[in-house]
Amino acid sequence: MPKVWTGxxxxxxxxxxxxxxxDGMTNTPTIWxxxxxxxGDLHGQLLVQxxxxxxxxxxxxxxAGPAMRxxxxxxxxxxxxxxxMGFTEVLAQLPKIMGLLRTLESxxxxxxxxxxxxxxxxxxxxxxxRIAQRLGIPVxxxxxxxxxxxxxxxxxxxxxxxxxxxxxxxxxxxxxxxxGMSIDYVGHPLLDSIRTPRIMNVRRHDNRIGILPGxxxxxxxxxxxxxxxxAALLAARYPDLEFVLPVAPGxxxxxxxxxxxxxxxxxxxxxxxxxxxxxxxxxxxAASGTATLETALLEVPTAVAYRFSPLTYLLGRMLVKVPFIxxxxxxxxxxxxxxxxxxxxxxxxxxxxxxxxIEDTPSRARVLDRLGTLPSLLGNGGAAERAAKIVLDTMHRx
Length: 398
Hints:
Layout: E1 4-5, E2 13-14, E3 30-35, H1 38-54, E4 59-64, H2 66-70, E5 74-78, H3 87-92, H4 94-111, E6 115-119, H5 122-134, E7 139-142, H6 155-161, E8 164-167, H7 172-178, E9 184-185, H8 190-194, H9 197-200, E10 208-212, H10 217-237, E11 242-247, H11 253-259, E12 267-270, H12 274-279, E13 283-287, H13 290-297, E14 302-306, H14 310-319, H15 327-332, E15 339-341, H16 347-358, H17 362-371, H18 374-377, H19 383-396
Parallel strand pairs: 3-4, 3-6, 4-5, 6-7, 7-8, 8-9, 10-11, 10-13, 11-12, 13-14, 14-15
Antiparallel strand pairs: 1-2
């Protein structure tokens, strides 16, 4: 086991020394990586880059989205086929999900990879882990499931079916320790892809407001009309504002256009410059998800919104135990970003939240001050390299 560093008192952070971890292998190693949603696909892309640096001869297969495919992962299944969220939404797609699992089992049986890496998405990936274990293939769970939010009892499943559990959130170390389980905390991989000098030096546009409605169809249809009405309210008060929306791979431009129902114009911009665009914004309205951590690391004040189906929301109120829905607030332990759920996610509330940041107010200064503390809490970079070493170590085990 490598030496570790206890950064910020949150847990163990693995320290690496560069080397080719595949030296001496007689066969070309095959690594299967499974991403179940857009954010997992982006994390998978960074992990593949780090794995290739440490094991240049490795072959990559898996369930891949646009980012992993661009990185050279052979997509035996596509991430876009699974991108659903919420209790009722998953139930509606259950026949399709079961079909994907049958295909995946067949592919794993045929390809016999040296290791399977599953990224987040526990409802799907717990089943993948069980399949891999049955086939005798070691499993690394990268981006540990958020069992601290609900369903703590699933820790027992992880003990039985996962060879290594890799965390990117500092507070998870203590949670799993309470359940008698050690994990590998590597820091957050977004630090390396977001907080580069080129991105962080992008000039701010004091009149630019970003719109991030999520990548799933249901997120766009439920949130974008609300964001568009909030934009109209802001534009009435600040006529010089411009609104921009980065279009992620797989997002339907026609759907976006149809859901932007106000007459206030919005500019759609390809996502190749997503982080630069977000960094240039004065403030952002965003769907809850990985995007909120991205905006936090880019130090852009953000109003967070989400609307679930009524049944999903009702069940969530009964089962979910965390005080916040956005990762920046959970990591910082306070409501730095205002959050708006269900009926609270309305145009007037969102417009009021954003309006307090358009000028140089004390509220804006407080938000920026707290966001500046995030990088040190998240490992200060190098997470993907640490995770890659764990994957290769697991692959080398007898």
